[in-house]
Description:
Blueprint: E1 2-3, E2 8-9, E3 17-23, H1 30-38, E4 45-52, H2 64-79, E5 85-90, H3 104-118, E6 124-127, E7 132-134, H4 138-148, E8 154-156, H5 167-189, E9 203-206, H6 207-212, H7 223-233, E10 237-238, E11 245-247, H8 259-267, H9 279-291, H10 303-312, H11 319-324, H12 328-338, H13 341-352, H14 359-369, H15 388-408
Parallel strand pairs: 3-4, 3-6, 4-5, 8-10
Antiparallel strand pairs: 1-2, 6-9, 7-11, 8-9
Amino acid sequence: MLNSESNSWVLTETPHIYVALPVMDEPEWLPVILHAIGRQTFRNFTIVTCVNQPDSWWSDPAKAAVCQHNSGSLSMLAAESGFKVEVIDRSSWGAGWTGKMHGVGWARKTLMDHISQKANPTDIILSLDADTRFAEDYFGSLPETLSVHPKATAISTPYYHDLPEDQDAARAILRYEIYMRYYFLNLWRIRSPYAFTALGSAMAVPVWAYRKVGGMTPKLSGEDFYFLQKLKKAGHLINWNRVSVFPAARFSSRVFFGTGPAMIRGAAGDWTSYPIYSFRLFDEIAETYRLFPEMYRQTVATSVIRFLQDTTGREDPLSTLRKNANEASQFVRACHEKFDGLRILQYLKRRHQEEKGTDEDRLREWLKDKGYEIRDMGNKFSFAENSIEELDQVRNFLSQEENRVRKENPLC
Length: 412
């Protein structure tokens, strides 16, 4: 039923879960996730999968194996009899992507748009990737979580990467996950509205919310981040779910940025896109947050305001927001929407260029400030030289801290 005051939907019956599953070149992982889906105790679901690739790959000898793998995936999905599967074929000859319409972003959008057209408003779109592991009660946990927060526009599910046997891959995913958790915890610490982690394999959205924001904007990569940011601007996100997901950690170049490409570049020694930003840079953002109410009267010069002046080309980047706001609270909200998650990342990247020191120094200083010592590492801590076990210690500390924060503060 529709809640006219909040424009949200209140659960009055068990929703149907539609699993949006993009598939490309997944001969190893597709059987694994189909097995995990078949074990779910919650049975009111439908799998909607998009097997996809650019159509031009059929004429590219270097992509012949991928084309055959996708054909095999179509056959495997057609033979599935344990649960309902709908297949959107964007991989067979003549059916693949053309032009700029390709990539996982287009696959997710195609899936979610298809689901939105036929689902009920209170049904749930669950985004998964083929290489994700989860417990048998994962599907059932999602309606429970949304019933507690029926106005929420999405769930960002807690995650934990399985460590691969390959030592280079294990080191790379630990470095990347430490970056993600450090980033999240600092955004949460300064009470940023954008304290969430975007993983395409770890998010769910009610159909009414998907329609409210006009669906997903297709991107070649990073579509999950832009999607959750849009949903955040439309309401609150849920950062907690009692069941976590376990994405695989693997080298992959199928997308332009994200876990797979980060691991590839990181294993080659390039972490410039995923540095440990000084926690003092987050403090600079917090100071501007604190001054937003005062800026309803007059813009105050801060490093963030100077950044917005440079990027917008406006002497007063908040003047239009001030003119359009009827009260201070409306103005503050507009400021947060202008200086959003993307702007925050851009600001940190720019300010980081002026910083001295190493990622290890900045991480150690922040952990010490949190009361956590990197045990038995002293001043020799190094992402490149410390053992996998020692890096996993740090990852696990951050994971426990993040899960505590998520559980105690489930909405952002």
